[in-house]
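testing teh design pipeline on a random one, pls ignore if ur not involved
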């Protein structure tokens, strides 16, 4: 069976390799591309800790010219994957909320004592960490580190395979990816056939933009493994 993986790199390649290792074919077509937007100079004077909700932030900060100063700050990370990425990038003091944004707010509120939080974030993000912290009387400044830019067209070979119904499944891991794919599908001359496209989404929220436009199935939990289980019919 052949699958189309639509998530950004490097995650796209990782998922595709897992599919190939299970004996199937996988095409990589990231529908979002990362553009780094972090300022060259950050005001760290009143900052006592960082808040991070994406593992993508780790290499961006590690390559920043203020890295020596940044790595002296404690970091509150939304989950273990993000925390591990920061540790590997050189941060010695990382605390994981092991959950979602609400869990991160609770973690910071329970541990933070003084100074301001610098929330290093994506341009488009779910949740409102800065407002939630402000409601807890914790000062939080937001620094945009990157944006994910939507692609507006597919590779010709991949579009031809879609038109021919060559894919056993299209794998979607975020709402913005689904939005990008939905925009592309609307441009297809053969759009009416798209309703038969089998799409496997990591969550209902991620798949929502494709509801009614494709044959949508949502994984039973929001993990990569669950998406693969659904797509490959693995028990």
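output:
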């Amino acid at each position: 069976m052949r699958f189309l993986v639509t998530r950004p790199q490097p995650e796209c390649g990782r998922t595709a390799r897992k599919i190939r290792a299970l004996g199937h074919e996988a095409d990589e077509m990231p529908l979002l591309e990362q553009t780094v937007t972090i300022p060259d100079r950050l005001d760290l004077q009143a900052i006592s800790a960082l808040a991070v909700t994406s593992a993508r932030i780790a290499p961006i900060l590690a390559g920043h010219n203020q890295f020596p100063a940044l790595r002296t700050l404690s970091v509150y990370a939304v989950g273990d994957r993000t925390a591990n990425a920061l540790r590997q990038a050189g941060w010695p003091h990382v605390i994981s909320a092991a959950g979602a944004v609400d869990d991160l707010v609770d973690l910071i509120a329970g541990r933070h004592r003084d100074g301001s939080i610098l929330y290093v974030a994506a341009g488009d993000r779910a949740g409102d960490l800065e407002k939630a912290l402000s409601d807890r009387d914790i000062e939080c400044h937001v620094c945009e580190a990157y944006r994910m830019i939507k692609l507006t067209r597919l590779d010709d070979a991949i579009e031809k395979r879609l038109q021919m119904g060559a894919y056993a499944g299209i794998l979607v891991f975020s709402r913005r990816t689904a939005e990008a794919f939905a925009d592309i599908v609307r441009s297809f001359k053969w759009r009416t056939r798209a309703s038969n496209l089998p799409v496997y989404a990591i969550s209902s929220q991620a798949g929502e933009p494709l509801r009614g436009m494709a044959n949508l199935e949502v994984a039973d939990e929001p993990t990569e493994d669950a998406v693969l289980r659904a797509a490959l019919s693995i028990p």
